[in-house]
Design brief:
The complex is a heterodimer. Chain A is α/β, with parallel strands linked by helices. Helices cover about 30% and strands about 25% of the residues of chain A. In chain A, helix 3 packs across helix 4. Classes of the chains: A alpha/beta, B alpha+beta.
Chain lengths: ~260, ~400
């Protein structure tokens, strides 16, 4: 099985965020990490490779700093990496990111493409699905389990309210992987040393530019949530006050 | 209230290290956060070494990480240092265990051992299947190891060892001890011997009642007519300078490690000072005297990082002298202990409870200040280096 894992570098979960000058995104001077759902996608790809042999390739799009996620993936056991390297990749929407990936891998033949379910920063949950559409491949989302079958694969999808759905799919296919599908491994110190010598291909923006269009989604403005304080006195007999309070907790604050 | 460590980088230290070095640090940090932090206070209370972490640490390559071959990771000195920093951010006792296994047992086998000894011990120790301890210090000889009383006498194709060793990390859990002894057939020259701990006459007793390094094992060793084959002599060990070379490796790791302990205390105190309110409903971080402590700590931590990074870079070029390592060990342990004390102060009464890591680090660092060359001995090493006059 030849598996491509699409990965993204995102601001660290507990990093204090500051808005940039245009208030359309955050300032660059924060710490970054691997998007958590992508880490699970990588782990699943490595496990599939260990079971069925094959190759795991990782891809990301972003400025030089995003090489970090590829290096970590290679240290954990991915075989090679593709880096769409340019600061210009930061502002792409899901459609253009998917177009860029599709253009970068046009000469490759993968059996499976994994993405994390969504990114921890934008949270679109679109890139994988759109990539499948662009490639003309079937896809399934929120994957909890992957088994090889005679005709392709059988996957378990997480639905709402504790329900699951099993889907039989042909290959090649795109899957978006749910966090928690497996237990993440650590990069080993030897793995970190070996990562240096694994093949990494750089793809400049110019190479995929012809495939890109203008963004269909745009962030107009980001803002820090305003803290407001509202005090309201409930009046009436204890019974009436309790009833009003319960109603407010249920319908307004929604904690009951 | 649990406070999560956020890392400390005031002066863009990260810009001075490579992606690879950062990955080593971040991987170790995550491992410690996931596996040691949840259990360390319980281990410290119970005086228990978390043996269950030996295998996972071995799997990640923590043992003998800077050695090449024999299954070891071949890390640079800076990478090795960043790893010990994160280990000691967790606990000095656990870092001590890794230092002893790596710098004080695997290193002398690697540097002074025969190929057969290396093949026998290094891969198994790298995998954590065999543990080691280092026997240099004696009940009556700490700072002055040349006075040691442990002796090796030849008997046919064997050596017979007699003596007492004290304050030996991992003594009672070790499979092999590197014992330094005066060799009678060489006019009492100090040599290193590998002593399997199951040999008749070898006994290890744990030292109880420690208020420090409670999550690591500390033992005294007694050797009474312990017979070992002559092939257990470390052939390239050559006088007192051999154990001192081992100590240099370990001191270097300590100089990094304690930066981690200092960071843990500082970051905890900083976060605490921002939510702890006292006067006029303001956080105590708004008080000048608290800010002075925080400013002192972040300045000293930053200086310590730069100092030990430079020593590491020199070491990677094989240019680090023992006096450089002494400076880093002396300064950084002192600054870490001061950070722990100031942080304890900022937390007030909460600082003495093991809900927070500070008092544990503080108690640990008291040992770290003394072992592997006391603060004062390192002062004299630096003094000797700049004056040319030995004041020891």
């Amino acid at each position: 099985m030849k598996i491509l894992v699409c990965m993204k570098q995102v601001p660290q979960k507990d990093a204090p965020l500051k808005l940039n000058e245009s208030s359309a995104w955050i300032r660059e001077d924060v710490s970054y990490e691997v998007n958590e759902p992508d880490a699970y996608a990588l782990e699943e790809a490595l496990r599939q490779k260990e079971k069925h042999s094959g190759e795991v390739v990782v891809i990301t799009a972003g400025p030089a700093r995003s090489r970090q996620v590829l290096r970590e993936a290679l240290a954990k056991g991915a075989d090679r990496a593709i880096h769409l390297e340019d600061p210009g990749f930061v502002g792409l929407d899901a459609v253009n990111t998917a177009r860029a990936f599709a253009a970068a891998i046009k000469d490759e033949k993968f059996d499976l493409i994994f993405t994390g379910l969504q990114s921890d920063d934008y949270g679109y949950a679109q890139t994988g699905v759109i990539l499948a559409e662009l490639l003309g491949w079937p896809h399934a989302t929120i994957i909890m389990q992957i088994e090889k079958s005679d005709s392709g694969i059988r996957v378990k999808r997480e639905l709402e309210a504790g329900y699951f759905q099993f889907v039989d799919m042909p290959l090649p296919a795109v899957l978006t992987i749910q966090s928690g599908i497996n237990k993440l491994r650590y990069a080993t110190l030897i793995g970190i040393k070996q990562a240096k010598n694994k093949p990494q291909r750089k793809v400049p923006l110019a190479e995929v530019q012809p495939a890109l269009g203008s963004n269909m989604q745009k962030i107009e403005r980001l803002y820090i949530p305003q803290k407001t304080k509202n005090t309201e006195f409930l009046e009436g007999s204890p019974g009436e006050v309790a009833k009003k309070l319960a109603e407010k907790l249920r319908n307004e604050v929604r904690v009951l | 209230m649990a406070i999560k460590f956020r890392g400390v980088d005031f002066l863009e230290f990260d810009a001075l290290i490579s992606d690879e070095e950062r990955l080593v640090r971040d991987t170790t940090r995550k491992f410690i956060e996931d596996n040691l932090i949840p259990i360390i206070e319980e281990c410290n209370r119970a005086g228990r070494f978390p043996r269950e972490l030996v295998k996972p640490m071995a799997d990640l390559g923590f043992f003998g990480a800077s050695l090449k071959g024999y299954g070891c990771a071949g890390m640079s000195n800076v990478e090795y240092g960043l790893m010990t920093q994160e280990l000691e951010r967790g606990d000095s006792g656990v870092r001590s265990f890794v230092s002893v296994q790596s710098a004080l047992v695997m290193y002398p086998i690697y540097a002074f051992g025969s190929e057969q000894q290396k093949q026998q011990w290094l891969p198994a120790m790298q995998k954590g299947e065999k543990l080691g301890c280092f026997g240099l210090t004696e009940p009556d000889f700490g700072s002055n190891p040349s006075g040691m009383r442990t002796r090796a006498r030849r008997a046919g194709k064997e050596y017979v060892l007699n003596g007492e060793k004290m304050w030996i990390t991992s003594g009672s859990i070790a499979d092999v001890a590197v014992i330094w002894a005066k060799n009678e057939e060489e006019d009492d020259k100090i040599r290193g011997f590998l002593v399997e701990t199951n040999r008749p006459g070898f006994r290890a007793e744990d030292i109880h009642g420690k208020w420090s390094l409670r999550a690591s094992v500390t033992s005294s060793l007694s050797l009474q007519d312990v017979h070992i084959p002559e092939s257990n002599l470390l052939p390239d060990s050559d006088g007192l300078k051999s154990p001192l070379m081992c100590l240099n490796q370990a001191r270097y790791g300590i100089a990094w490690g304690v930066v981690g302990a200092a960071m843990a205390c500082y970051d905890c105190a900083l976060q605490y000072s921002l939510f702890r309110k006292q006067f006029r409903d303001q956080p105590i971080a708004s008080h000048q005297l608290v800010q002075e402590k925080l400013a002192w700590m972040i300045t000293e931590i930053t200086k310590a990082q730069l100092l030990v990074l430079q020593v590491g870079r020199l070491k990677d070029k094989e240019k680090a002298g023992h006096q450089h390592i002494s400076m880093a060990k002396r300064n950084n342990v002192w600054m870490a202990l001061e950070c722990a004390r100031l942080s304890r102060d900022i937390l007030g009464a909460n600082g003495v409870a093991d809900e927070y890591p500070i008092f544990r680090h503080m108690a640990n660092l008291e040992s770290v200040k003394t072992y592997e060359g006391t603060h004062d001995i390192h002062t004299l090493i630096i003094g000797q280096s700049v004056t040319g006059i030995d004041a020891i």
